[in-house]
Amino acid sequence: MIDAIRQVGAKTVNGIWKFGCATRFSFTMLARSGMCLRRPQLVLDEIYFTGVLSLIIIIVSGLFVGLVLGLQGYETLKRFGSAEALGTLVALSLVRELGPVVAALLFASRAGSAITAKIGIMKSTEQLSAMEMMAVDPHARVIAPIFWGGAISMPLLAAIFSAFGVFGGYLIGVVIIGVDSGAFWSQMQASVDLREDVMNGVIKSVVFGVAVTLIALFEGYDTPATAEGVSYAVTRTVVTSALAVLALDFVMTSFMFTGV
Amino acid sequence: MKRTAVDLWVGIFVVGGLVALMVLALKVGNANTVSAGRGYRVTAEFENIGGLKPKAPVKSAGVVVGRVESIAFDNKKFVARVTLLLDKTYEFPKDSSAEILTSGLLGEQYIGLDGGGDEQLLKDGDRLTLTQSAMVLEKMIGRFLFNKAAEGPAAEKQE
After folding, report:
1. Nearest to A153, CA basis, from A43, A27, A14, A248
2. What are the chain B neighbours of A164 within 8 Å (beta carbons)?
3. Which residues on B lie below 8 Å from A55 (Cβ)?
4. Does B21 touch chain A if contact means CB atoms closer than 8 Å?
5. Inter-residue contact A219 to A116 (CB < 8 Å)
6. Distance (Å) of CA A217 to CA A36, A107, A111, A113, A177
7. Parallel, antiparallel, or unpaired for β B79-87 and B39-46?
8. Chain B: nearest CA to A13, how far in angstroms?
9. Is the ipTM of this complex over 0.90?
10. Which residues of B49-77 are buried (b: 16+ CB within 10 A; e: fewer)?
11. Helix locations, A52-173, DSSP H
12. For chain A, which ranges sit under pLDDT 70?
């Protein structure tokens, strides 16, 4: 009994400790990211790694999410005789929620896990220590470029996801089912607001990008220097960043879309 | 500067992302409707605005000619003061009337403008004097029931 309580306490203290380390890690990384400005090639390589290589999965999933939204939305809206509102439904759900959230979840599992594995293996094979020995700062040379690459890629990926989702909804709604094309677009434009909806979606995706990349980097940096440690770290990255994305999404939604 | 394939792909990716953002802003969103620079403001007072909300469309003959900019409560006259932002390309006579209508049975509420016959046109800051409030379903049902109840005994007496 006492043991169980003790374990709960140890877990809590450990969690808070880890959170503090992660905060310190982020500040160190941000403070030393001056090198990214002097050598933008480093960041470009990371955008290629996290962004360009994630394009296929983002485009295909966006398209299919849009197709499914179009089908399901049509079936439901048809009952109320307002199938023309399909554009509104598809665009609002993608721009406000599904675009940023699903893109962030895909980003965490496609790019976040790769980042953790990369940093974790660099650490367990003592490449990071070797860099420090050569007076190369691993924070500035390796970690900061990955962070900026991820933080830049994620909003772009979310925008591409939403755009392809809307296109998927258009394909199903207008091309296949035959909803009126003019009504589809005009209803969509009448109800999607540039600042309220599109901008808030972009803000969400920026926050998710920062959160997922930071979690992935820290889990890799904090991993025990064994093969098993790296595998656990990769798992923790995917789980933690998925939970963080969903929790942050709830918090931001409750701030952004209240009233009116 | 040395050019690599990575640079090209990153360029394609970034341009693609920005194009997607532009599509969302222009095609999906309403960045290209009335903005403050190209319109004029008119106020109207209503006894009851029902479920009217800011950004609701203002339509004349079914065509969107502007949007509801803000809704305030006048604490002296106890009426709602609605500010409309109308597109500059559409001009209306001074005695035009505004009413609050509903699109469809369960649709959103909008303001309908009917042009009048005055020579003078509406200018920025003018006030529409002819207004008709929103229909409130409860009040209508209440009135209907009241009329029925008043009819009932009278009809019986005639027999």
Report:
1. A43
2. 20
3. 13, 16
4. yes
5. yes
6. 16, 14, 11, 9, 45
7. antiparallel
8. 42
9. no
10. beebeebbbbbbeeebbbbbbeeeeeeee
11. 55-79, 86-93, 99-107, 113-124, 127-133, 138, 144-170
12. 259-260
